[in-house]
Amino acid sequence: MYTKTISIIAATVIGGSVLTTNIATARDYVSIVGSSTVYPFATTVAEQFGKSTKFATPKVESTGSGGGLKLFCSGIGVTHPDISNASRRIKKSEYDKCQANGVKDIIEVKVGYDGIVLANSKKSHPMKLSRRDIFLALAKMVPGTDGKLIDNPNKTWKDINASLPNTKIEVLGPPPTSGTRDAFAELAMEGGAKTFDNMKALRAAKGDAVKPLMAKLGIPENAFNAKGKNVFKRVAHSIREDGAYVEAGENDNLIVQKLEANPNALGIFGFSFLDQNEDKVQGSSIDGHMPTFEAISDGSYPVSRPLFFYVKKAHVAVIPGISGYLAEFTSDKAWGEEGYLADKGMIPMPGAERAKFASDVQNLTPLVLQ
Amino acid sequence: MSDKNMKRKTTMTIVSEGLAKRYKKEKRFKMLGLSAILFSLLFLVFLFSSIFLNGYKAFFQTAVQIDVFFDPAVLDVKDPATANYHGLIKTSLRTAFPDIKKRKDKKKLYGIISNGASFTLRDIVLENPSIIGQTLSVWVLADDDIDMLMKSYIDRELPESDRRMNDMQIDWVDTFKAQNRIKFLFNIGFFTNGDSREPESAGILGATIGSMYMLAITLVLAFPIGIGAAIYLEEFAVKNWLTDIIEVNINNLAAVPSIVFGLLGLAVFLNFFQLPRSAPLVGGLVLFLMTLPTIIITSRVALQSVPPSIREAALGVGASKMQAVFHHVLPLAMPGMLTGTIIGMARALGESAPLLMIGMVAFIVDIPSSIADPATALPVQIYLWADSPERAFVERTSAAIMVLLTFLILMNGTAVYLRSKFERRW
């Protein structure tokens, strides 16, 4: 009996080691990583591509923009991904890391736009907000009557703006790890903070000019940074933690469900979820623009961001299917105004911009980041 | 004497006086215990029924019958695999609703049929190329929006602007209904397809196979190694400070959060051994590390429960230590070990956190055909669907949970059965 057991163990160990030596020499599918915002669009293209050609369907991982670019820039070779999706542009630091690890030529492709909406239940009235209102409702510190920053005293929407309803401020949104939260802070909160003169001046200030502005705003000296922009960002990006902003997790479906149950609350999520749940929730207008397909597409809706993906040029010739996937993604039937990605909730770019990026892809023009 | 009597009486009185109170206390405790069980059962019933009510409709899928003319001008006889099958569907829909002229309306009309339908047509042609030139009535899957309407998730009473579908689209569906050209089919695709971005053609086969590969690797490694370690530690190892340290470590590892094993897998298997990302091989190795301590602990308990008299009797008639263990102790401990292993496997099946770190949270359409192919697992598939914007994925999420629960109940049921059938008590 025990000889049997021993031989089983031996067989497993030998079998295991044989397997490990044979693996990782080739890959016949495209490996894509990155942003969870681009994920629904990249997967749609991957599926179309896989089903309509003889190539294997690309594998798309949802790792988040930062996580994806970290994997992407870790080197050249089959164990590293070929494409990374991102819901923001690649950072200089990430680009440098890529260069240092031998990922020399990167092709940047902008695919379209995504709107971030503030929505509430259809059971209550639509909200007309401005970015200033959003900042005053959600920032941890807001300018008080003397212009100095104080802990956010606003309890109801009416406290902020007399034209808004007299309901408690309650906003459900994504946690700090989310790309949606980053984009929301950058576009909505910073946009609102800029409407205060001193904050705007702080953003532009550099070196010695920063300290007096900080004093005017009542920001403690230990937050000092030679670039006023960094101090500004610290203030504008801090979201209040007294219960008015509720971190509702990364799952946007859950936020929609919670809004239905609580008509007084507002939720922050991507446009595609508003598009899918038009019968349950309604978008709030921001600075006079409703979050509609058209308004995001022409850039008039202020809280929208571009979506990208990055391709390793060195992999294009080696991994089968990359050029086909790129051609599918940049074809009009995919990212065009009437394309299937628009059906999935992505906002297409204007024709000229599409043509520019399509030709970049065709010629494999590498990105040069200054 | 009378004093003694008095004293005894008082003791009896105290006892009989307190008796009712003690019975009451016992009763109260029983009631509390019972209500605790009922309370947890209530939650279980609530959980199961909400999952079932959300998910059972996913096992049926709306299909639409359309008349397709397999146009020889569109289909190249030499190479029918690459033709524009979507165009055939569009033509068929235009013939069925000739009054639709506006470009935008036409687009909505084409949207009735699932994007996956063109592949259904392709398969029909590839199987039987002689139908080119004929007109066939074909049942194809409807788009997920139509499916949601048919399953009354879209409220017809709402004003048009609030609905995902406008009046015209609902009219088309009603026309199909009047002609008996729309019906629910059993959703075979749910069990035979891989993942898809179109809810109507998304299935769990890929994730199930991925889970099975992983469990196979986990079992093949964890069972012999875990039992071997348990036998050595329990029967052969001398008790000293070294084995004490090992024991403490094993108990600690069993309580380590699973995500830590994912990080370990990332560092060791992916970065050091350069194994492929997203492969069930790596997932299986990580889950093996995670379940190993549990299996060692339960196997040691099973060995401990075999009475020493069995070992002594074997040694007494001249068996060597090894013979005593493998011929007498191990067979008696085996049912307990198997139970522990199955419960460990069930835990591994439901695990998703460590898989996040090794790239198994991914969109994978192709069904994995080996342990080195990219794959996901059932719990990961549930997570991915729960996060998708399309509403039809909500019921699919619940349906996938039902499938996962079925596997778990089967595995745990086997464990209970094995225990009750083979376990011996001394």
- Overall spatial form of chain A: globular
Major beta sheet summary of chain A: 9 strands, mixed
Radius of gyration of chain B: 32 Å
Strand order of the largest sheet of chain B: 2-1-3
Give me the oligomer status. Answer: heterodimer
Structural class of chain B: mainly alpha
> CATH-wise, what's the superfamily of the largest domain in chain A?
Periplasmic binding protein-like II
- Give the CA-CA distance, first to last residue of chain A: 69 Å
Description:
The complex is a heterodimer of chains A (370) and B (426). Chain A is built from 18 helices and 13 strands. With 370 residues, chain A is of the alpha/beta class. Chain A has 2 domains: 27-113 and 305-363, D-Maltodextrin-Binding Protein, domain 2, CATH 3.40.190.10; 125-262, D-Maltodextrin-Binding Protein, domain 2 (3-Layer(aba) Sandwich). In chain A, strands 1, 2, 3, 4, 8, 9, 10, 11 and 13 form a 9-stranded mixed sheet that branches. In chain A, strands 5-12 form a two-stranded parallel sheet. In chain A, strands 6-7 form a two-stranded antiparallel sheet. The radius of gyration of chain A is 24 Å and the shape is globular. Residues 20-24 of chain A have low confidence and may be disordered. Chain B has 2 domains: 60-186, no CATH class; 205-422, MetI-like (MetI-like fold, Orthogonal Bundle), CATH 1.10.3720.10. Chain B starts with a helix and ends with a helix. Chain B has 16 helices and 4 strands. In chain B, strands 2-1-3 form a 3-stranded antiparallel sheet. The chains are: A alpha/beta (370), B mainly alpha (426). Chains A and B meet through helix 1, helix 2, strand 2 and helix 12 of A and helix 8, helix 13 and strand 4 of B. Strand 2 (59-61) of chain A pairs antiparallel with strand 4 (362-363) of chain B.
